[in-house]
Design brief:
This protein is an alpha/beta fold. Among the domains are: about 250 residues, Rossmann fold; about 190 residues, Rossmann fold. Helices cover about 30% and strands about 15% of the residues. The strands form four sheets. A nine-stranded mixed sheet has the order 5-6-7-4-3-8-9-13-14, with helices on both faces. Strand 1 and strand 2 form a beta hairpin. Helix 8 packs across helix 9, helix 9 crosses helix 11 and helix 14 crosses helix 18. The longest helix is centred in the middle third of the chain and has 21 residues. The protein starts with a strand and ends with a helix. The N terminus is likely disordered. Bound molecules: adenosine-5'-diphosphate-glucose.
């Protein structure tokens, strides 16, 4: 695709496929040993394998762009990724699997399917969700619409849903189960809305709710009025069918549904948001659940003993539910064979395989409020809002409408779809529409034509139309989404749905990203610090980082940092292009990232060429991301487009000055330094071009070297901001309320 300017003065968008990815890792993971710079020749990696293996699970998403095929992201375990960053190529091939060629320009799918066995015979659907067996909608949910258009089987591994064979129920016949959920609303079907189907949970009697809900410590999760936000101490209320602990007319049941959630599974900013926003909503008094696939064994979560069966692309699949109650939030992990063992490759596989996973996930997630009794009580479908995220879960609003609200069910449930990155849309051939098990007339919501993708089915498009409200992660990005250059083919849909879209800048999880308490700064010579101890603290962290990376330990040399996915979006190649100029400066440069193979090679090459100045760490390391954020003086973000951007927020919270391309959320969050008014938070440049980056860096370095007081005031302003999720959660709450009263 071509690049184009969003506006005359800003934002050149790089319109090639950008995927996100990053391995995440478990919080409190151990920090790997410092890498060792060998100065080895071209055939050797630059970093020695660490003597200790970090516990972080890592997800390394490969980035691909350009035309042709869609390349799936890649990732490997954190340890593997860390090791891969330092070991010779041959060893890396073992740990980083399935590197792919560039993909379709849009859609965070895998590459074109290589599987070729269309097992339509397996469509002898034998099971279905028993909850649905009790009511008419069963035929919608568990069986494909019999009137569905029959498209020729594309010959992929995905199985066409059977329209001929009625699914059977293999779980016990459903018995009515009183639904509890949001007090005062759930279970109240006096408005003529029939209660949704429910069924007894397997092993319910043996399930110890106290174990999951942290019954002993409900204090943290109280709102201003002292009302428990988490439902933890509300069990008795629910048991008595009392009104429960949640108070206030706008308190709601909220279910956040996403493909990733930090610290369990993270490939990028989506994981960060899903790990943090729900907690902030819970602090405001809402009852909040996160639903995410269970890609690995997460020690915090326990099997709830519930078994259900769902059909995905013609196959009946068993689903189990794992639960953890942390910081006032119910985390529900969906366990199914399709998700297992994907921890290091959550977006891996062919496009059809990813599609199948997401179909299953969305079908399961939309019924979680009926089937999963968190704290002993289901959320129920009254006063309920789903928050779906990106194309992966954009089918949820569609299923909610097609299966339920169109049939007079779940009338008090709303859906919000959050756009974190519109560059990935879930595009596929129209012929695959039947896999989604939707009524024939829903096809029109998916069908889209654009010069890039031609005639295709677009999941994000359908989700945007079906969702009651839409949020994107900054106001600047919302504006860009309406442009031809920034909408990636969906600009018309965004424009026509403008009335229901809000731009809300992400926040920071202050438990994770806070120099005062950052666990990754507690060893190896680093230190925690605050605004009051900024000078000494940053000096110490900088020295520790230089030591850890084998750079000369000097306080007077400005240390520039870059952290991010290596893809077209993040503009790391622009830093590469600026290297001749950077090499002529008295600076040090540390880059951490993983993704596209050519950009990974670029990082290694730059280090090889400038061993005394540059470190290029190829891999995904959460501890190193924290340490660079603390130890660097400047964080460089030349992103071609950036819906919000989290690293610049983290940088400012750590007294690290951002230099950014003024686009999307970067423009919204980094006010340019004004030396005359002594205002501003960093430096911005108006085009993602090398000369613009150099110009901004020149001003930045000049201030660093010659205007110490101004520099300190920029740092102080950055650190003094309230970047917490609490503010963002308040804005999300407005959207929840708008959705609630919207018909
Ligand atoms: N190699 C590496 N090792 C360790 N950590 C790494 C890493 N590479 C990246 N990370 C971490 O991953 C996160 C990336 O955050 P971004 O905002 O850049 O996300 P991304 O572009 O994936 O997300 C999309 O969604 C988010 C959330 O809405 C938007 O902010 C963003 O603009 C949009 O593109 C940060 O926490 C960063 O530290």
């Amino acid at each position: 695709m071509s690049s184009a300017a969003v506006s005359s003065a800003s934002s050149t968008f790089f319109l090639a496929l950008a995927s996100s990815a990053s391995p995440g890792g478990r919080r409190r993971a151990r920090v790997g040993s410092p890498p060792f710079h060998t100065g080895a020749g071209p055939n050797f990696a630059f970093w020695r394998a660490p003597p200790r293996v970090p516990r972080d699970a890592a997800l390394v998403r490969a980035e691909a762009e350009g035309g042709g095929k869609d390349a799936p992201p890649e990732r490997s375990g954190d340890a593997a990724a860390a090791a891969a960053s330092r070991w010779p190529r041959a060893a890396r091939r073992k740990t980083v699997s399935k590197r792919r060629d560039p993909l379709q320009p849009v859609g965070r799918y895998g590459s074109s399917g290589t599987g070729n066995t269309a097992r339509s015979g397996a469509a002898t659907a034998s099971t279905q969700n028993a909850a649905l067996a009790a009511v008419e909608i069963k035929s919608i949910v568990a069986a494909p619409p019999t009137s569905i258009v029959k498209f020729p089987a594309p010959g992929y591994r995905v199985i066409l849903p059977s329209g001929d064979i009625a699914p059977e129920t293999v779980v016990p016949a459903p018995k009515p189960l009183p639904l509890h959920g949001s007090p005062g609303v759930d279970g109240d079907y006096s408005n003529g809305v029939a209660p949704p189907p429910a069924e007894p949970v397997v092993q319910e009697a043996t399930w110890d709710f106290k174990k999951y809900i942290g019954f002993e410590e409900p204090v943290e999760a109280k709102d201003d009025s002292g009302v428990a936000a988490d439902g933890a101490d509300s069990f008795e209320h629910y048991e008595n069918n009392d009104s429960g602990p949640l108070a206030g007319e706008n308190v709601m049941n909220v279910i956040v549904v996403a493909a990733e959630c930090s610290p369990w599974c993270k490939t990028g900013g989506l994981g960060d948001v899903v790990g943090a926003l729900p907690k902030a909503l819970a602090r405001r008094g809402h009852r909040v659940m996160v639903v995410v696939p269970r890609y690995g064994d997460y020690v915090e979560a326990f099997d709830m003993g519930i078994r259900k069966y769902y059909k995905a692309a013609g196959q009946d699949l068993e689903v189990n539910y794992f639960h953890a109650f942390i910081d006032g939030v119910d985390f529900v992990f969906i366990d199914a064979p399709l998700f297992r063992h994907r921890q290091n490759d959550i977006y891996g596989g062919s496009r059809q395989e990813i599609l199948k996973r997401m179909i299953l996930f969305c079908k399961v997630a939309v019924e979680v409020p009926w089937h999963v009794p968190c704290g002993g009580v289901c959320y129920g479908d009254g006063n309920l809002v789903f928050i779906a995220n990106d194309w992966h879960t954009a089918l949820l609003p569609v299923y909610l409408k097609a299966y339920y609200t169109d049939h007079g069910l779940m009338q008090y449930t709303r859906s919000i779809l959050v756009i974190h990155n519109i560059a990935h849309q879930g595009r596929g051939p129209v012929a695959e529409f039947p896999y989604m098990d939707l009524p024939e007339h829903y096809l029109q919501h998916f069908e889209l034509y654009d010069p890039v993708g031609g005639e295709h089915a677009n999941i994000f498009a359908a989700g945007l139309k079906m969702a009651d409200r839409v949020v994107t992660v900054s106001r600047g990005y919302l504006w860009e989404l309406k442009t031809v250059e920034g909408g990636w083919g969906l600009h018309d849909i965004i424009r026509s749905n403008d009335w229901k879209i809000n731009g809300i800048v992400n926040g920071i999880d202050h438990q994770e990203w806070n120099p005062k308490v950052d666990v990754h700064l507690r060893s190896d010579g680093y230190t925690n610090y605050s605004l009051e101890t900024l000078d000494a603290g940053k000096r110490q962290c900088k020295a520790a980082l230089q030591r850890e990376l084998g750079l000369e330990v000097r306080d007077d040399v400005p240390l520039l940092g870059f952290i991010g996915r290596l893809d077209g979006q993040k503009g790391v190649d622009i830093i590469g292009d600026a290297m001749p100029w950077i090499a002529g400066q008295d600076v040090q440069l540390v880059m951490l990232g993983t993704g596209r193979a050519d950009l990974e090679r670029m990082l290694q090459h730059l280090e090889r060429e400038h061993p005394s100045k540059v470190r290029g760490w190829v891999g995904f390391s959460v501890p190193m991301a924290h340490r660079i954020t603390a130890g660097a003086d400047v964080l460089v973000m030349p992103s071609r487009f950036e819906p919000c951007g989290l690293n610049q927020l983290y940088a400012m919270a750590y007294g690290t000055v951002p230099v950014v391309h003024a686009v999307g959320g970067l423009r919204d969050t980094v006010a340019p330094f004004d030396p005359f008014g002594d205002a501003g938070l960093g430096w911005t440049f108006d085009r993602a071009e090398v000369n613009k980056l150099i110009e901004a860096l020149r001003h930045c370095l000049d201030t660093y070297r010659n205007y110490g007081e101004s520099w300190k005031s920029i740092q102080a302003r950055g650190m003094a901001q309230d970047l917490s999720w609490d503010h963002a959660a308040e804005l999300y709450e407005d959207v929840l309320v708008k959705a609630k009263y919207q018909w």
